[in-house]
User: Fold these one by one.
Assistant:
Number 1:
Amino acid sequence: QHQKYIRNFSIVAHIDHGKSTLADRILEMTDTVSKRDMQDQILDNMDLERERGITIKLNAVELTYHAKDGHDYEFHLIDTPGHVDFSYEVSRSLAACEGAVLVVDAAQGVEAQTLANVYLALDDDLEIVPVINKIDLPSADPDKVKKEIEDVIGLDASDAVLASAKQGIGIEDLLEQIVAKVPAPSGDLDAPLKALVFDSVYDDYRGVVLSVRVYDGTVQPGDKIRMMNSETEYEVTEVGVNSPNPLSRDYLIAGDVGYITASIKDITETRVGDTVTNAEDPADKALPGYREMNPMVYAGLYPTDNAKLTDLREALEKLKLNDAALEFEPESSQALGFGFRCGFLGMLHMDVVQERLEREFNLDLITTAPSVTYHAYLTDGTMKEVENPAEMPEASAIKKIEEPIVKATIMAPNEYVGAVMELCQHRRGQFLTMEYLDDYRVNIIYNMPLSEIIFDFFDKLKSSTRGYASLDYEMNGYQESDLVKIDLLLNGDKVDALSFIAHRTFAAQRGREIASRLKGIIPRQNFEIPIQAAIGAKIIARTTIKAYRKDVTAHLYGGDRTRRMKLLEKQKAGKKRMKAVGRVDIPQEAFMAVLKTD
Ligand code: GDP
Ligand code: MG
C-alpha cells in the first residue's frame, strides 16, 4: 500500500537556528537538487528572502528517500519561517503534516519561538523529532541543549539527532528517524475527495495555484472540484508537486501534499483553510480549516501616484492569496488621497508587504505610521474602534479610551533579568510573573501595551541583553489608559496621516521629539515650513524648516530648456516614496518618524 511510504513533516525552529540550511542538506542528500543547481537556503526563493537571509513563506517540496530498510519513501517537507510575525505560515504548514522536525541551535539553546512552535505542533498532535543543529560551532553544547529540551519543553531528547546542517553531519540519522517516528498518513483512498488548502499564489498563466494536503480520496486533471466554503466549482487542469520546481503528476492521493490548478481567475473566491472536494461525489463535511488571524497593527498604504489606486487594489487582492494574514479596506486621507487601511501581524510583516507590492507589482507606495486598534468609549454610550489615529473623535466626545494589551513572554539568561524588567517597566509594562526554566534561563512575563512593543521594543530588548533574550507575545485583552491624540501641522495645515496617539504623560515630549525629527527629514523647499505639534487647539511644540537658498537648475542659466526639463525629471524619478501634501513633499521616513523613540 502506497501511503505506508509517505511521510509529511514541517521543519520548525526559532529564527536562524538553521531550518532552511537543513532543508538544503536534505534536498542534496536525496538528489532532489543536483550539486550544480544547489545554492544556500535554496527554498528561500523570493528575492526578498535571499536579500534579508530570512524565510518569509512556507515552502513545500517532495523528495524521495531510499531508506536503510530498502524501501523508497516519499517525503513532503515544509520549510517554515521562524519570525513571530509569520507564525500563521507555521501553523498552516503543521496542519498539513503528521510530524515536525524541531531544530534547536546547539549554541543558543531553546528560545521563545522554539517553545511557541512546539506548542503549535503539539496542538496538532504531531510527532516531534528533535534535532540539535550547529554542533560544529566551538560554542556548541549539545548536552546542555538536550537537557534544556527535556526540562523546558518536556520532550525526550535522549536520541535527539546531533547535526551540522552546514557541514552535512547527522542528515542520514535524521532521515531515518523521520521514517521511524513520523506516522504515515492514514486517509481513505476510496472516500470522496477532501483536500485542505494551506496556501495559494496567483500565477498570470495558470491562475490561482492551490497548495493542498489531500486527506481523503484522489484528484486528477479533468475532475470537477468544489470549494466547500465558497461554494464555487472548477475543472482541474493540472495537479502536481514541487520538487522544488513544479512537476505535474497524473493524480494526487490521500496523504499527498501538492498543488492543484483549475484556471481559477476569480481571486476573491479562494481562501486558505477551505476544503476542496469532488463536485460530483462531494464529501459531506468540510475540514475544520484555520482560525482567522486578527491583525496586530494597521497602517495606511497609499500610491505615491494617485492614478495607481486601482493597480494597488488588484495587487493587494493578488498578494492576499499568497499572504493569508493580510487584510485591507479602502480609506482616504485629506493629506494622502485614496488608499487602503491594511492590517498586519507586526512590523516585519508590514515591511514585507510594502516591499512585495513594490517589487512584484511595480508600485511606489507610502506607508503611514502603524497604529493599534483603540477602543474609544463615547459620551453618547457607543464604542468606536479606532484603527487610524486621525479618526479618533474629539476629546470632548470621549469618556474613556482603551488600548490593546499583550502578554509578552521574554526568555532570557538569569543575569539579564534586571535589564529586561527595566525595559518593560519603562514601556508601561505590568509585571505578571517569572518562571525559572532551568539553572540559567528564566521566562519573564509582562502585560504590555501592544503599541509599546510593536516598533522597536525587540531591538531594544536584544541590545540590552547582548542578543540573548527572545520574545513571544499574544493578545491579552484591552485596558483603559490615559491617551491623547497629537496632530502635526506643516505650513499651518494639519496632516492627518501624521497624527498619532500617545500616553498623556509623554505627549508633550513626544510632540517636541517628532517635530524636530521631521525637521531633519522633510527636504527644504524654497519657502519656510513651520512644523507644529498640537493636542486639540493647543500647540505643544513648534520648529521651522528654513527655505533653501540655491535653485538646483540655477546654474543652467535658465537657458537650455530641454536640459532643464531633463534635470527636473531626474529629480522627480529620485523622489521615490515621497508624497506631495499641499506645497510640501513628505518622504516615507517622515511617517515612520512618529514611531521612533530615543
Ligand atoms: P533558519 O532561519 O532557521 O531558516 O536558518 P538558516 O538556515 O537561514 O540559517 C541561519 C544561519 O545559520 C545561516 O547563516 C547559516 O549558514 C547558519 N547555519 C545553519 N546551520 C548551521 C550549522 O550547522 N553550523 C553553523 N556553523 N552554521 C549554520
Ligand atoms: Mg529559514
Number 2:
Amino acid sequence: RNKLSIAIDGPAAAGKSTVAKIIAEHYAYIYIDTGAMYRALTYKAIQANINLHDEDAVADILSNIHIELKPNEEGQIVLVNGEDVTEVIRTNEVTNQVSIVAMHPKVRREMLVRQRQLAADGGVVMDGRDIGTHVLPNAELKIFLKASVEERALRRYEENKLKGFDTDLDKLKQEIANRDKLDSEREIAPLKKAEDAIEIDTTSLTIEGVVRKIEDYIEERL
Ligand code: C5P
C-alpha cells in the first residue's frame, strides 16, 4: 500500500488535531502538529521577554531551538531543547499571541523547511493552516475542515469544562474569531483552502463522522 501524505488545514478549533491523531493511529502514520511548533516558538519567545513583533528577534530564537514532536499514548508530546512543553504551549497567553509570531516571513520560511523534513518519508498526517497550500503542495489528500465559530467556541468550552475550568463562551468566540482573522489576513501563507482540497463542514458532524469521511477518501487513494 502507498504511504500517503495527508494535509489537514482549517481555522482554529475546527477539530483538526483530534481527527488527525485518530487517522494517524489507524494507518500507523506519523502525526505532525505544525501549530504546536509555532506555539513552542511563541512560548520560548515570551520566556525570553522579547517583543513578539520583532521579526529578527523571534527568528533568532527559532534558530536556537530544536523542536521535537514525539508520539505517546495521548497523541504527542512536544519537546523544546529537551524540555517538555506539551502543556504550557496551550495556555491562553500563548494561544492569544501565537498568530503574531506566525506572521513573520523568516519564521515561516524556517518552519517550512523543518516541516518538510519531518514529512520527507511520507506516511504522514500533518495539520495546520498552510499545509495543503505551501508545506505539502503535492500531498495525495488535502482536507479543509471548517465549522461555525459558535460551534468551535462551544467545543472548546466543553473541552475546558471537562478539564475542570470554566471559561466565558463569548470571550472564547471572540478569541477564536480574532485568531482566524490574523491567520487569514497575513501576507505569507495565510489560512486558505487549497484549490484541490476537499472541504468538510464539521458543524453538525461527530468526530467519528469526520474521521469516517476522511478515511473513505484515504481508501480511494491507497
Ligand atoms: O493549530 P493551532 O491552533 O495549535 O495553531 C496555533 C497557531 O499557529 C495558529 O493560530 C497560527 O497562527 C499558527 N499556525 C500557522 N501555520 C500552521 C499552523 C499553525 O500559522 N501551519
